[in-house]
Write a structure and sequence with these properties.
The chain has one domain: Amidase signature (AS) domain (Amidase signature (AS) enzymes), CATH 3.90.1300. It is of the alpha+beta class. It starts with a helix and ends with a helix. The longest helix has 30 residues, at 306-335. 40% of the residues lie in helices and 14% in strands. Helix 6 (156-163) runs parallel beside helix 7, helix 11 packs across helix 12 and helix 11 (306-335) packs across helix 13 (363-384). The strands form 3 sheets. It has an 8-stranded mixed beta sheet with strand order 6-8-7-12-13-11-9-10, with helices on both faces. A 3-stranded mixed beta sheet has the order 1-3-2. The chain has a two-stranded antiparallel ribbon with strand order 4-5.
């Protein structure tokens, strides 16, 4: 494949669709370039669970010059906890290896309708339980910036594939930081939309913690993805109110002066934020002040102890995950010819520990946790209400070495304590439902370092406008991981 076609995959998705539309490159050429790039980098990063060569090439062949769709001919991948018709939907598990999807999830269907070419599905930890992507039954997903480190999770495969230059954008979802964490680890933009902004059908109508979205190199592509994915689907139990314009149109408007709050301390005992994360935050604050924004002092203080929020989040998250294990695990077991409920041998140690934890909680316990979350989220929203945006470090530490946070610890549930030391700032936006975005503002000692911006409810457009303003100054869209730079030589 000519090097210029390989280089094209490092350009924005919106630009690639224009090139296909204008006939400067064909969808088939882009798809073949992506498949060849995947073949080159996949042995090093283990980003994909399934690669659909024949399906992708057939879809690309049907896309012709003049196609006006937003993603016409653009190679993308779907996180492997959402159905892609004809491919396994494993959700990170080994018990689901034979569970084939007979339909497209709403996000898959919307990407197809926008002209995207689905080249495969990307890796996640078993049941999406971890902020790293290291299920015990397959190779860990590695960071294209440093192969000894994690690419994050749970949308780790999506982030690794984009950061390695294999695809320009990727689908993912976020139930506690699962878009923002891997985007932060790999130098990308990860936007968690407002709760209810993107449909979760046809399987479910709503989820208190989880929302689908995507990972991109540029703010413009993050806005494009949100335009493609957002809006209710027939049968949704609830949805976010629609924005009055497209998110790409919002990027064309001037951003007014924002009142910005800052939260440096997650207020969780024992959690220490590393200096690189604080340096990135402070330098971003200084730049925002130069750009005319008001950064309010002193720092935001949470009205609730951070550990209380961690404990509540673990309750909600494990209750939710256990339902997925019970339903999908049993279906996967049946598809493989097995019988009976999910057993210990079917799961990684963490998955089994979570299932047992949830089984020991009553329905009243589960409802009480959600009741408390709704009340406490109002207190948190009240603390953030004086600000247009609240800035935090995206992560407390650099991406951990592979093998640090995984599913096979002697005390599996202790992994949540390790995780809170790594990503203590992420879950608040899931508890409250607010949009939040991870911005790759810095590169320190060879690794990406990011800042998180949390917006007011339904204010994705403000986060995107702010991101575009910072991107114009910092030019993170021009940065390349060593693996991407090597693949594009």
């Amino acid at each position: 494949m000519a090097s210029d076609l390989r280089d094209l995959l490092l350009r924005p998705a919106g630009e690639l669709a224009r090139l296909v539309r204008d006939g400067a490159v064909t969808a088939s050429e882009l798809t073949m370039a992506s498949l060849e790039k995947i073949a080159e980098v996949e042995p090093q990063i283990a980003a994909f669970t399934d690669i659909d060569v024949s399906g992708a090439l057939a879809a690309a062949e049907a896309i012709k010059p003049g196609d006006e769709r937003a993603l016409a001919g653009v190679p993308v991948a779907i996180k492997n906890n959402r159905a892609v018709n004809g491919l396994p939907v494993r959700s990170g598990g080994r018990i689901t290896d034979q569970l084939m999807a007979a339909y497209d999830h709403a996000t898959t269907a919307r990407l197809r309708a926008a002209g995207a070419v689905i080249v495969g599905t990307t890796a996640l930890p078993e049941w999406g339980l971890l902020p790293t992507t290291e299920p015990l039954h397959r190779a860990p997903t590695r960071n294209p910036w440093d192969l000894s480190r994690t690419a994050g999770g749970s949308s780790g495969g999506a982030a690794a594939a984009v950061a390695a230059g294999a695809i320009p954008i990727a689908h993912g979802n976020d139930g506690g930081g699962s878009l923002r964490i891997p985007a932060s680890c790999t130098g990308l933009v990860g936007l968690k939309p407002q709760r209810g902004r993107v449909p979760l059908g046809p399987e479910t109508g709503e989820n208190f913690l989880v929302v689908d979205g995507g990972i991109a190199r540029t703010t413009a592509d993050a806005a494009l993805l949100l335009d493609v994915l957002s809006g209710p689907e027939f049968g949704d139990a609830s949805w976010a109110p629609p924005h009055h314009e497209t998110y790409r149109e919002a990027l064309g408007r001037e951003l007014g002066r924002l009142r910005i709050g800052v939260q440096r301390d997650p207020q969780i005992e024992g959690v220490v934020v590393e200096q690189a994360a604080l340096t990135a935050l402070d330098e971003t604050i200084a730049l925002l002040e130069e750009l005319g924004h008001e950064v309010v002092q002193p720092d935001v203080v949470l009205p609730i102890p951070g550990q209380v929020l961690v404990d509540l989040f673990v309750d909600l998250f494990t209750d939710m995950a256990s339902i997925q294990m019970r339903v999908l695990g049993a279906a996967g077991k049946g598809a493989a010819g097995g019988q009976g409920p999910v057993e210990e041998a079917d799961l990684d140690p963490l998955g089994w520990a979570v299932a047992q934890r949830a089984a020991g909680r009553s329905a009243t316990d589960a409802w009480q946790a959600k009741f408390m979350a709704e009340g406490l989220s109002r207190l948190l929203l009240g603390a953030y209400a004086p600000y247009d945006v609240v800035l935090t470090p995206a992560l407390a530490t650099a991406p951990p070495q592979i093998g640090t946070i995984h599913a096979g610890l002697d005390d599996p549930l202790s992994v949540f304590t390790l995780a809170s030391g790594f990503m203590p700032f992420s879950p608040i936006a899931n508890l409250c439902g607010n949009p939040a975005i991870s911005l790759p503002t810095h590169q320190i000692e060879g690794l990406p370092v990011a800042v998180q911006a949390i917006g007011r409810p339904c204010d994705e457009h403000v986060l995107l406008q702010l991101a575009a303003q910072l991107e114009a100054q910092l030019q993170w869209d021009a940065r390349r991981s060593p693996l991407a730079a090597g693949a594009a030589r």
